[in-house]
Design goal:
Elements: E1 14-18, E2 25-29, H1 30-37, H2 40-47, E3 50-51, E4 56-58, H3 65-77, H4 89-106, H5 113-131, H6 142-146, H7 155-166, H8 188-199, H9 206-209, H10 222-244
């Protein structure tokens, strides 16, 4: 999704956004910010964190500065990318996870395609960084994942769990240490199931079967349908090729 410059009102008010983890402010056009948060007057009534006199919005309890920077980037360009590629995989994934949770917490209409497009773009980049580390630098290790906060029942958590089963792990930890990669509801039997899946052969990965595996989107999203159809075609072609061999 490319953001067209003529769709942005550059004469609109500039909102100064304060987030957690930094004293720096993010400056963003009001019209773009309201696409995610809704009318700031309503936001003020609900949360009491917007000052219309100074045009300052305090999101320090709902978003980290680095994650919100990615959201602002997406609002202007329709793309997700990290400026500092030398920071290492843990820092990069932390920023992406922060951005995902900020978008999830702040969006006023979770049925809107606009919101799902943002979180899906974040997940696409997160998945790509893990499964294609050669494009970004160092590979992610199991120890790296243990350093990244996970919120239960979210798409980043689901992907990290699947990566444990299907991914190209670069280290081996004791089974009891793997508990950190699962939701709070997980039990010992869940851990055993995962380990058995890995020992039994992983097969085709979820992200290969369906590029939209970790997406949240409106039913009937044309983009997701097209990508899923492409994945099915590739899978069918691979199956037929294997049968010929």
């Amino acid at each position: 999704m490319k953001r067209k410059r003529d769709m942005i009102d550059f004469t609109d008010d500039i909102i100064r956004v304060q987030c957690g983890g930094s004293t720096k402010l993010t400056h963003i056009h009001r019209s773009l910010l309201e696409k995610m948060l809704g009318p700031l007057e309503v936001f003020k009534l609900v949360w009491g964190e917007f000052d219309p006199i100074t045009n300052k919005l305090d999101l320090s309890t709902d978003a980290q500065h680095d994650g919100f920077q990615l959201i602002a980037q997406w609002l202007y360009t329709g793309e997700i990318g990290l400026a500092d590629e030398a920071s290492g995989p843990v820092t990069a994934l932390n920023v992406l996870v922060n951005a995902y949770h900020a978008a999830d917490r702040l969006c006023f209409d979770r049925t809107a395609l606009y919101w799902s497009s943002a979180v899906n773009a974040i997940m696409d980049h997160l998945v790509d960084r893990v499964i294609n580390p050669e494009k970004y630098g160092a590979a992610i290790t199991v120890e790296d994942l243990l350093k990244i906060p996970r919120i239960p029942d979210t798409e980043p958590s689901h992907f990290f769990r699947d990566w444990l089963v299907y991914g190209d792990l670069t280290s081996i930890l004791r089974p009891e240490q793997l508990d950190h990669l699962f939701d709070d509801r997980s039990t010992g039997s869940c851990l055993r199931d995962v380990l058995e899946q890995r020992l039994g052969g992983t097969g085709t990965t979820p992200w290969e079967k369906n590029p939209c595996e970790y997406h949240l989107h409106m039913k009937g999203s044309k983009q997701c349908q097209a990508r899923a159809s492409t994945a099915r075609t590739l899978t069918d072609t691979s199956t037929k090729s294997g049968q010929v061999d």
